[in-house]
Amino acid sequence: MTNNYTPPKVWTWDSENGGKFAHINRPVSGATHNKAMQVGKHPLQLYSLATPNGVKVTIMLEELLLAGHSAAEYDAWLIDISKGDQFASGFVEINPNSKIPALLDTTNGMRIFESGSILVYLADKFNAFLSKDLAKRTEVMSWLFWQMGSAPFLGGGFGHFYAYAPEKYEYPINRYAMEVKRQLDVLDKQLALHEYIAGDEYSIADMAIWPWYGGLVLGQLYNAAEFLDVQSYSHVLRWAKQLAQRPAVKRGHLVNRSFGDGAQLPERHNSSDFIPFNL
Q1: Which candidate, 122, 231, 186, places its Cα nearest to that of 194?
Q2: Res 17 pLDDT > 80
Q3: Tell me, what's the pLDDT at 14?
Q4: Residues 6+ apart with CB under 8 A from 193
Q5: What is the model's pTM?
Q6: Can you list the alpha helix ranges (DSSP code H) found in the chain?
Q7: pLDDT per residue over 63-91, tens digit each?
Q8: DSSP per-residue string spanning 116-150
Q9: pLDDT recorded at residue 24
């Protein structure tokens, strides 16, 4: 870094500073405008976007449906974070933290926010993809919490400074690249011993980790696969490619997608919505 920065005694917000997302980032919470959330006909109402955190939940919902849990039918409504939809009053009522995804269970009126919490809620509600055996459940939960704690270094750290920051700085890119590669090494060693993240059973741990780290090694995040030498993590690559072939993963990856190249399905209301995509 060529310029030295001396922090002021008291930080103040510069609303023009922050790069690509400066117009939606702010140091306070709460709604900026009044707007109710739409509610469809299905038991579960999802308000989301096809970022990695959003994809975790749509994969889970599609896995539940394909496993025969018809009560997991859902409407998926697009929350365009680039336009500030997450600050609508109706969304803030469901998630006071104004982050996607957020879920409303119309069968009991419960709101669920934070992607990991949503996965656990759905797993417990439908008794699927999370073992009741204490040892197996604990292993899955350990990896789920690993993902929730580790992904900010990948997304908010590496991804921000490598792909989104208004200027490239060597120190933060090196700092977060080192940490992301350490995390990939953790996964690679685990997957060298097991077919899936938490053992021999596919679980919500896989659904949580795949959109971030699977997407990274498959070249779907930040255009950073070559920079991070992802080919050296052969076991992560094997696992990522294996999950990418699951029908529910293909479907979940498409739901609430309104950006990028390729197929998009901004809203999802029925399984027939996937017919045009041969899914």
Answers
A1: 186
A2: no
A3: 84
A4: none
A5: 0.96
A6: 52-66, 89-94, 115-126, 134-152, 170-191, 204-209, 215-217, 234-244, 247-254
A7: 999 999 999 999 999 999 999 999 999 99
A8: HHHHHHHHHHHT-SS-SSHHHHHHHHHHHHHHHHH
A9: 81
